[in-house]
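Tutorial handout. Part one gives the primary structure; part two gives the three-dimensional structure as tokens.
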Amino acid sequence: MTAQPVHPYQPEPRVPRTIGGISEALRGARRAQFFAEVLAAEQGAELDATLTDIRPGC
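Part two.
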């Protein structure tokens, strides 16, 4: 008996934490909301928080 999985594990591709990477991963209203938040955010901590708080599929 082995400990190998029946189906090989394939992690979902990671989304680059860039404006372009995140916007490509989002669709519809989530994408529009992301762009609105990016445009409203000030450069620095506020923009960094916008890029790290977005979770595609949420």
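Part three, for discussion. The chain is about 50% helix and 0% strand. The mean pLDDT is 82.
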